[in-house]
Each structure stands twice: as structure tokens, then as C-alpha cells.
Amino acid sequence: MLPFMKMHGLGNDFVVVDARTEEIAITPALAKGIAHRQFGVGFDQLAVIEPARVGSVADAHLVFYNADGSTSAACGNATRCIARHLMDQTGKGALHLTTDRGDLYAQDAGDGLTSVNMGPPQLAWDEIPLAEEMDTLELPIEGAPTATGMGNPHCTFFVENADLIPLAEFGPRYEHHPLYPQRTNVQVAHLVGPDHIRMRVWERGVGVTLASGSSSCATAVAAARKGLTGRRVRIDLDGGTLWIDWREDGVWMTGPTMHVANGSFTRQFLESLDR
User: Fold this and answer.
1) Is the peptide bond before 3 cis (omega within 30 degrees of 0)?
2) Calpha distance 227→26 (Å, rounded)
3) Cβ–Cβ < 8 Å for 273, 33
4) 81-124 pLDDT, tens per residue?
5) 222 CB contacts (<8 Å, ≥6 apart)?
6) Could you tell me if 15 and 112 lie in one domain?
């Protein structure tokens, strides 16, 4: 049997596996099987909580898988959900977590909200990464989107009305753009008011999602770089609202989380997968 938790941040939903006391091998086939919303449980990302790496003083190490079985170095909303779970479990008000993105710090923001520092944004073309050297503020793509790295690549379009963009068609067109060798997350956004953004998300390897933490961070950074907003903004997504604050020590993201249920995958289900 394989125990799991189901969580979400603003409808951006996750299956979380705690592998701190027992090593659990996650394969692309297993991740894809669990991700299927009819034949599995369904998720936007699968997150695995592992023990801190040898020599690290962190509370835990996190590994992320997309719904297509590919991996991601970062997942902001999943990090917030897991941080809330670990804080509730340990009684701590602050945590040090590590991911393939690097060191992330989380804290209780009060009123049921959880904050995570997603680290400094990656603004250089080879850090994001892009296929060739260019200005990341305005890419040579129709609409002049902005490229940002948050441990995963992002492509942000500022449009007149994000709600009118057919995201299911628009997203995959740019997820696989030749400028992004590792594919990219795609955001469409417009200004609602001062320091207030409406944003929708197409996630690489997933599709349309109700929310995305790293996409929200990337959009806030892009808006500030373009002079559209300050460095502290409210972002309204399909699933709810996040608050992003681009500080000297990194991009802080604050919002609610939900631990929906605990369960376990049956032997029959696990043996049915081509692992």
C-alpha cells in the first residue's frame, strides 16, 4: 500500500507522498497513472516529501512531478501546502525546505495563510533557460511576452483581457515554442487596478490550471520589470487570490491552503500500472 495526502492551493491540486521514513520510488509511469482523473486520483503536481539531504539542516526536501510524468524543480502552491502540513505537524512557525530549485523558506502568515519565499527570479536568458541570448523583458514573439525563471521557465503575456484568451489553444502553442528548450509555463494577464493583476495559467506538462504559485511569482516579476506595477501585488486566479511580494531576499508568495483527505493506493491499482 502507498499512503498519500490530497491537497490544493486555490484549486491547484496535488497528491503528496511522505517518503521521510520509507524510501518510495516514483517513476514517470506511476506519476502518470496517479495523475489520471478517471483511472487514478488526479493532480496538477505530485509532490514527494523526502528527508533533508545529507549535510543539510533543512526540515525536508521536496521533489515534484507534473501530470505527464516529467519533473519540475519548483511548485509554489505545493510547497505552501506541504509547509502548512509540516508546521501543523511539528508546531513550528517557520520552516527551511530544499528543492531542486534551491533553499526555500516558509512561515505562518496568520489567518490560515502560509507564505513561502520562492527565491530570487532568474532573469538571464541562460538561467531561465532560453535557446539563445536575448532580452528577456520582451521576447521576439508576437505579443512581446516576458521570460522569467522561478526554478521552472515562464512566458508571460500582458493582454487586454485575460478572460477572453482561449487558453486551451493558446497555451500549448507557446509551451513548445523553440525559444524554450525545456518547454514553458504560459500566463496571460491584465491589470485590474494599481498593483492588482488578473492572471490565467497554462502549465507545462499539465494544461489549464486554476492557479499556479510559480506562475504568479513570474507574472508579478514581469509586471514590475515592465513598470506596470510595484513589487508587491495581488493576483486573482481562477481558483482565488495570491499575494506576491518581490523583496531583496526573493519572491514571497502568500495564500490559503487546503488539506482535503488522506488515503492509500491499493495493491490492485499499483500493480495495474506499467511501472
Assistant:
1) no
2) 42
3) yes
4) 999 999 999 999 999 999 998 899 999 999 999 999 999 999 99
5) 146, 148, 154, 156, 158
6) yes
244 and 266 share a domain?
no
Measured CA to CA, the distance from residue 151 to residue 120 in angstroms comes to: 9
Q: Is 183 left (phi over 0), alpha (psi -120 to 50) or beta?
A: left
Work out the number of other CB atoms within 10 angstroms of the CB of residue 260. Answer: 12
C-alpha 56, offset from chain centre: 23
Task: Quickly tell me which residue has 508576437 as its cell.
Answer: 142
The amino acid occupying position 61 is H
**What is the pairing mode between strands 196-203 and 232-237?**
parallel
Owning domain of residue 196: 146-248
Same domain? For 71 and 164 the reply is: no
Question: CB count, 10 Å around CB of 134?
Answer: 13
Q: Strand, helix or coil at 115?
A: strand
Residue 38 DSSP SS3: coil
